[in-house]
Amino acid sequence: MGDGTGRGRWWRRRRGRAGDAGGPRRAGGEGGAGGAEEVLGELTRLAAEAGDPQAMTFHGMALAAGGDPAGAERWLRAAAGAGEADAAAGLGLLLLARDRPEEAEPHLRTAADAGRTDVFGVLGLLYLQRGDTGGARTWLNAAAAAGDGRSARLLGLLPDPRGQAAGPAGPDGPDGPDGPDDLEELEELLRRSAGRGDPGALFCLGLLLARRGDLAEAEDCFALAGESGDPEALAHRAYAHARRHGEESAEVHYRRAAEAGHPAARHAVGALLHARGETAEAERHYRLAAAGGHHDSLVNLGVLLRRRGDLDGAEDCYRRAVALGDADAMNNLGNLLREDRGDLAGAEEWYRRAAEAGNADAQASYGAVHAGRGEWGRAEEWFRRSAENGCAAGMINLAQALARRGLGHEAERWLRAAQKAGPAGPGRTPPRPGRPPSGPGPSDDLDRIADWLGGPAARGDEDARAALDMLRRAAGDGAQDTGTPPDRA
């Protein structure tokens, strides 16, 4: 993007006067300073829209500070793509705050390679949290050499497997996880520091213990680290407790972390309330989590609003989550467009995007679109992808497509798998099949499948009923509306 407009050039001149460290100072004092700040903010926005990478960076950071993480991410991505190291650093830190460390790392590395020494320590902590003490040592050593006292103290806890001093500062160092002996030595050193009550050491020890499955002791470490009110420690205590005793048992811990401002914990509380039907309070928690950058909450909020009948609100939530690349939101948007708006072409486009992104529900729905047009080969291909990804709707639809071709034995295998398919996870709605396409098949195989389905169908199983209805109508080649799996909440 170019910046050849007068607005872009003026903004850079104004920025040079306003900032003494590469950034604008906040206006202070009296006499209309707030108005001047608003004008500067507006001019920065205009320069960003005109394509000035530095303006994009500052506008993105302003949006982040103002509570618009989605808008901030969009502008920082654009500026980072234009080569702005400050934007890469800001984007990496924003993604970390939004609980997306894998996405954050390459941007932080870009910033580090460009000389942003302040992200060296952040990279060190990232590596330490994933158990890669070699990578952690490299970046913490670089941060310590740049004057970061906290990194220097943490570096002192890390063992050196060569028995030598830490290597040279900079990103050139071991990237793979160290061996078990190294981790054992790290644990010993962390325990020593944790025994003195150091919250950071307690937190890191908890991460190390949770990584190897010692959840009871990990929870104790997170509990002690969380006594200071640290949101991350409180949230990790909830995670460890939930893995041991279930999500509902962890609610009190999620609430403590949520009250401390942790977005993922706010989302977890919202999901628990949503499952109990306490939708007003669930909505409040979802909105708080979404404002903190948790896009799963946008998806769940969309489900809640759609069920309430607020289609515009639901569509807005889905589209905001789609802009962040959420495949569940793409699928749910397709459902809304098809079932509530009657926009079949728009629905198909979103099913396609979600299916290609690996969403199993969307793969079942996209297959159903092809089946509805009589494109059975393409339909079976997508049903199979969905089934192999664990979606009961895809399994049922695949079984019916196979039965249509006379492959009753394989069809029966998928029907049995569909009966065993469990829910998608905490706070998620298990997928239901729609009404899949009908078609002819050898009567013996179809009768065998129907006999097997009769038991669970009589006990009220909706999947079995849908499949049994299809088999009873299995005559002719006319494609029927398969329906779609419900929105994922």
Automatic annotation (TrEMBL):
Locate the compositionally biased regions of type Pro residues.
428-440
Give the protein's recorded name.
Answer: Tetratricopeptide repeat protein
**Entry keyword set:** TPR repeat
Decide whether keyword Signal is in the record. Answer: no
Task: Note the SUPFAM superfamilies from the entry.
Answer: HCP-like
Give the region (Disordered) as residue ranges. Answer: 1-37, 157-183, 418-463
Segments of skewed composition (Gly residues): 19-35
Organism, scientific name:
Streptomyces desertarenae
Q: Which intervals carry biased composition (Low complexity)?
A: 157-169
Keyword Cytoplasm in record: no
Where are the annotated TPR repeats, by residue?
Answer: 295-328
